[in-house]
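Bench notes, bay 3.
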Amino acid sequence: MSKKGLPLEGIRVIEYANFVAAPVCGRILADWGAEVIKIEPSFGDSMRIVGIQWCFPAKEDENPMFEIENAGKKDIVIDTNTKEGVEIIYKLLENADVFLTNTRQKALDKSGLNYEEVKKRAPHIIYAHLLGYGEKGPAKDNPAFDYTAYYARGGVAASLMEKGTSPANPVAGLGDHYAGLGLAGGVAAALYKRKETGKGERVTVSLFHTAVFGMGIMVSAAHYGYRMPISRKNPPNPLNTTFKCSDDRWIQIAFFQYDKWFPKFCDEVIERPDLKDTKYSTLRSAVNYVEEFVEMMEVEFAKRPVDEWCDRLQSAGIPYEKLATTEEVLEDPQCWENGYLHRHTFESGHEGVIFNTPVMFTEAPKPEYVRAPKLGEHTKEVLAEAGIGDAELEELKEKKVIL
């Protein structure tokens, strides 16, 4: 695969990770030009099977769930529960730049792959560690997924629910993807620093911190008495909310320049000029009558279908969007014209749709899409490049250290 001209061309990443958050970081780094070598146990990353929960096929010749998090990587199988397996990783780190992991700290300590040991034996390495809750505190050793550390403890789930109702079922991988993107940025910064100092660095991002950062405005507002969740009938201002249209579709308005836009909204959008110069016409006044004005607007928006409201708001220059389903995102021309999605034909012959990672470069070439690797597909190739000869490879294979 050609990495020529990409920002991280020549960078080698050893990925010792599973599930989503750290592997998607590896995929981002691969898209940026790094050579990413994924280490799996003999039974494989759990992502090779869990996709069946969301209707994905999970076969060797068609595994979209694994594909979307692991495209562009090489793959080797090593038993890291053995001393020989750990030593192979250290041999790979000699000519690598980044060690990427989301393995729990206790397991890293046990295997000898913790930061302290890696720093001692490979001081040039950028050690990128995706954590659940952080390095300190009572929850630091708790198992973590985005459902728990991001959505639940991070305040995301309770803030997104409609007040007085039950929490929504979380979207799989949302927090993981944000955390992985943050870690990729941290790795890039640490690589830049290493050019100046010649020294490695440890970079950490936690799912919990990612949620607190994403919820930062609301967390800070809580200090001043603002409480989440809220009702869509009682938003911060009466036009910063969702409305149900006559065809049962919903529309979101972002009415952040309230006083400036209100006359045009009355004249051109809802055709209610009688509402101008009333208690609803300025933000300072309207915030005192939020719920009653929302109820008035619910009646107005129920008169027309969503597409007509979109046309009216578009003409008036007021920010809006209809609430899209995932099926609609799949067909959105904005995605396809910008290359946010692409079609991929699996070895099964079936076509799937794969997302592209969100950071794009204008001068660098568009990265070539390379399918996700098979389990252990590059073990012999990668270890041979590391100086492990055929006889040693056979011995490691017989001992089941490698696959």
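Next record in the batch:
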Amino acid sequence: MIQLLFAVVFAEMTLILLLLFKTPLRRAVILGLDRTKRSHGPVVVKTVAGTVALVLGSSLYSVRRIYRRRALEGDANPTDQILMTTHLLEATLMGAILSLGLMIDRLHHYIRELRFRRRGMEDITKQNRALQDEKEKVIRGMEEEVSELRTKLKYLQSDLSTKTEKASVAEASVVALRKQSEGLLLEYDRLLEENQKFQKQVRVLDQRLSRSGSKKVM
């Protein structure tokens, strides 16, 4: 019984050492514990732990009974001493087994939680990288669009300056044509006045000629 308890204690200590240090066997131990905690594994572990706790209680009760009997009798019986020592050793080993088992369970839980958080952090890091890449792509697209808009703006400014120059030339031509038309109108008015004067002179000459002709006939 004691040899079995020692073997279990050493086995649990070995598992704890394997869980504490990052070795190639650590992953295998974690996978084995994961499988143990699935399906009927927790029920079996709780049953074994309950049985060990009952045996531990029985050993402690036997130690107490032997101690009370020694106190009543007052004699140091070698058989009782051996039994008491044996029960104390068994109780100590079973207490160590329960404590180490609880420690293994907590270590396994913390390792799984740590791995889960690391995976979560890796996922968050990947998401941040993806968002950063998407942001950089958007920024590059916006920069290209701004560059294209600047090129179009320069083209429009050049086109606008060209059309402004053409408009200025056309406006100057319009002003020149307007002045020319005003000069032509003034010349037309002058010629019209001269024509009217000439017609008056022609009428006067016609009247004179008609008068001189009538005197000759008489």
